[in-house]
Amino acid sequence: MSGTPILGRDPSTGQCIRVLVENGTIASVEECEQTTDLWISAGLIDLQVNGYAGLDVNGEDVIPNTVIDLVQAMLATGVTCFAPTIITAPEATILRNLRAIADARKSDSHSAACIPFIHVEGPHISLVDGYRGAHSREFVRPPSLGEFERWQAASGGLVGLVTLSPHFDQSDEYISALVSRGVHVAIGHTHASPEQIRSAVDAGARLSTHLGNGVAQQIARHPNPIWSQLANDRLSASFIADSHHLPAETLKAMVRAKGLERSLLVSDTVALAGMPPGIYTAPVGGRVELSPSGRLSMEGTTTLAGAAIPLVHCIGEAVRMTGFSLPEVLSMATANPGRFARGRGLLQEGARADLIRFRWTREIAIHDVWLAGELVHQESA
User: Which InterPro entries does the annotation name (predicted)?
Assistant: First the structure.
């Protein structure tokens, strides 16, 4: 697509702007006198997607078409860049699913454009109940550079983010080795001490995964993994703002402590996200109930069994929960995670033309979506 003007209102100013796209890149952004009721933004970026709309990158039957269909489902929600997230599992399962994602990128241009890298969450996490979350205890294991190299061999070097707990003796060496290879390292599902967390940051860890979740119900009042990560200015932090994983006061206080510029939103959705409410049998959690509000719980309990609200709806929830403005929250779902995705998520001259236009009341309603300048989704009549 060349020379195509796209009109929308800038959420920061309310002013209508004209975005000119040439060869997949934003050629110019200019104020204009025309009017529209559509807002415009860089496309959303989600660094933690386990699945959506019945599609699961951790399932037993993952094939390239699973990933290709997931990409199309994500684009329809305004997400133009996401990291498929593989969780703790036997190595053979991880390798198989890595290959499926890599093959999808090779065979489908939208998958290649949407998926900058793969996020592996685990298996090097805490064995302790609560901190481990829904990850299978039997497959938790210490970090191994040999295993990581096998991940990269299977995926063609696509593993770009690894979440781990730095309580293992060899964590610092492992983190340093991954960072030297250009891989982002995040701290998550951890019972590590403040000293171990500081040491992991010294080794190169730069992100906290869904901070405030993947933590035991009862922790020490002062020395605990949440305070240690919130206080470290070298760590950015991702948050699940679905109104179920964090109370409003907690999310607001955490974002204030971390700072807007170091705060990211992730969905952490599982395959049941986007499905009708009801009772399901899930690979993780067994019998689970998806409520009309999007809360996914163990059947008959209030215990969460995963996240089921897409990032686009988390933006509206985050505005409501924190009182931060729409442009402030949008930055947490575009430019801020974009720093971990090779500088994506920007609406400025020279940036890649990943764009969304939307209506805004109490939440975002996607109107149309561009991926590298190509119109890939449009609201149906």
Answer: Amidohydro-rel, GlcNAc_6-P_deAcase, Metal-dep_hydrolase_composite, Metal_Hydrolase
What letters, b where the CB count within 10 A reaches 16 and e where it falls short, cover 327-339? ebbbbbbbbbbbb
Q: What is the CA radius of gyration of the chain?
A: 20
Q: What are phi and psi of 209, to 5 degrees?
A: -85, 130
Instruction: Identify whether 173 is part of a domain.
Output: yes
Instruction: Return the structure tokens found at 242.
Output: 């679905």
Residue 278 maps to a domain: yes
pLDDT tens digits for range 217-256: 899 999 999 999 999 999 999 999 999 999 999 999 999 9
Annotation: binding site: 121, 134, 189, 210, 213-214, 221, 245, 304-306
Burial track 107-134 (b if 16+ CB lie within 10 A, e otherwise): ebebbebbbbbbbbbbbbbbeeeebbbb
Give the CATH number for residue 98: 3.20.20.140
Query: Is 103 labeled as catalytic in the residue annotation?
Result: no
Q: Are the C-beta atoms of 165 and 142 separated by less than 8 Å?
A: no
The answer to whether position 372 is within a domain reads no
Q: Which of 108, 268, 354, 368 is catalytic?
A: 268
H or E element, residue 317: helix 311-322
Domain residues for the domain of 146 are 43-343
Cα 175 from Cα 163, distance rounded (Å): 10
Summarize the annotated binding site for substrate as residue ranges: 134, 213-214, 221, 245, 304-306
Predicted TM-score of the model (pTM): 0.97
| Residue 58 located in a structural domain | yes
pLDDT in tens, 52-70: 999 999 999 999 999 999 9
Report the candidate in 9, 71, 86, 79 with the shortest Cα–Cα distance to residue 45: 79
The amino acid present at 127, given as its one-letter code, is L
Which residue intervals of 131-224 are DSSP H helices?
Answer: 145-155, 171-180, 194-203
Crossing angle (nearest 10°) for helices 64-76 and 91-107:
70
Summarize the annotated binding site for Zn(2+) as residue ranges.
121, 189, 210
> How many structural domains is the chain composed of?
1
CA 348 to chain centre: 22
